[in-house]
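Check out a protein:
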Amino acid sequence: MDQIPGSKPDRLLAGSESIYDDSQKLMERLVIALVLQYTNGNQLQAA
């Protein structure tokens, strides 16, 4: 998990109650970044 930008593995140990929400936001940021990279920044194609 240390290799995933923005990940917080210590939140699991701290008993965070928003792990699912945090992981979903992280996943969305990663997917959006990858799709925009794939489309060379073209938001119309990315949609």
